[in-house]
TrEMBL record:
Species this chain originates from: Paenibacillus allorhizoplanae
Listed name of the protein: HTH-type transcriptional activator Btr
PROSITE patterns per UniProt: HTH_ARAC_FAMILY_1 (PS00041), HTH_ARAC_FAMILY_2 (PS01124)
Pfam families linked to this entry: AraC_binding, HTH_18
PANTHER family: ARAC-FAMILY TRANSCRIPTIONAL REGULATOR (PTHR43280), HTH-TYPE TRANSCRIPTIONAL ACTIVATOR RHAS (PTHR43280:SF28)
Keyword DNA-binding: yes
Start and end residues of each HTH araC/xylS-type domain: 179-277
Keywords tagged on the record: DNA-binding, Transcription, Transcription regulation
UniProt-listed Gene3D superfamilies: Homeodomain-like (1.10.10.60), Jelly Rolls (2.60.120.10)
Length: 281
């Protein structure tokens, strides 16, 4: 998969020619037999359900998704019997055109976009739809100014896609490092832990780390640590005769009374009450 930086560099060097921009309804219950799609195209699914099959790979149509075609793609589609599918679709050609060591380079783009063929899920579908609609509206004007604006709108569309690919890749990287810190918390819950320390370990700002941590786990880092410590404490209270002071130290609390307050806030009972109840069961 191309990363956003590679994609941005490629399109920075590209000259586009838009062959067609349209807004089309694919009727419910219809089927298109396989044919060879011979031009670069990009579709935006506005609404409806069905399937695209591109080079024998089946993609479910979802509102907000973007479908990218490259030349020599074998293409067929089915539309659900339940409702029509509405799409924006843009057909385009392009060449690489850039200056290198004082010399202009012009060459066909060939199959450079092939790794992106298929479905691109969007993070902000309304933004992408606005870009498709802008290309479509400008395409309808045949004067040179409208066509120039159409090309600018098309480049803005690609810029939005690049940003969203970057956001998805950055989010994926963040998920990986946050997963690492979750494992670190599990291995070191007895030790003093701070959000600042964990964010530095992840290489993220404290605010961004906290937001992504909650997106991934459903809890803030602080609450995640607290609930893990309480869970470990419940295990110890249920099956050991250790003192409350020692158990609180084992789960990362130097102050037994603070530990008791935290435990009661999470479980609704004091540690000693929980221990008595557990041993009766």
């Amino acid at each position: 998969m191309l990363n956003a930086t590679q994609l941005a560099d490629h399109f920075h060097k590209s000259m586009f020619t838009i062959a067609f921009a349209g807004n089309t309804i694919l009727p419910a219950g219809t089927y298109q037999a396989p044919y060879i799609h011979n031009i670069h195209s990009v579709h935006y699914i506005v609404r409806g359900k069905g399937y695209y099959v591109m080079n024998k790979v089946k993609y479910e149509l979802e509102a907000g998704s973007v479908m990218l075609f490259v030349p020599e793609t074998t293409f067929e589609w089915w539309i659900s019997d339940e409702e029509d599918v509405e799409i924006y679709h843009i057909r385009f050609d392009y060449h690489l055109c850039y200056k290198e060591k004082q010399e202009w380079i012009i060459q066909p783009a060939t199959s450079w976009l092939a790794p992106l063929r298929g479905r691109l899920m969007t993070v902000r579908p309304a933004e992408i739809r606005r870009c498709f609609d802008m290309v479509f509206q400008q395409w309808k004007g045949y004067d040179p100014i409208s066509q120039y604006r159409c090309n600018l709108a098309f480049r803005e569309l690609w810029l939005s896609l690049i940003h969203q690919i970057y956001d998805q890749q950055y989010s994926s990287d963040a998920d990986s490092v946050i997963g690492f810190t979750c494992q670190y918390i599990a291995d070191h819950y007895q030790s003093p832990l701070t959000v600042e320390q964990l964010a530095k370990m992840a290489g993220l700002s404290e605010g961004y780390y906290s937001r992504q941590f909650k997106r991934l786990t459903g809890l803030s880092p602080k609450d995640y640590i607290i609930r893990l410590r309480v869970k470990k404490a419940k295990d110890l209270l249920a099956c050991s005769g250790l003192t409350m002071t020692y158990i609180s130290e084992l789960v990362g609390y130097d102050d037994e009374f603070y530990f008791s307050r935290v435990f009661k806030r999470i479980t609704g009972m004091t540690p000693s009450s929980y221990a008595k109840l557990s041993r009766k069961l």
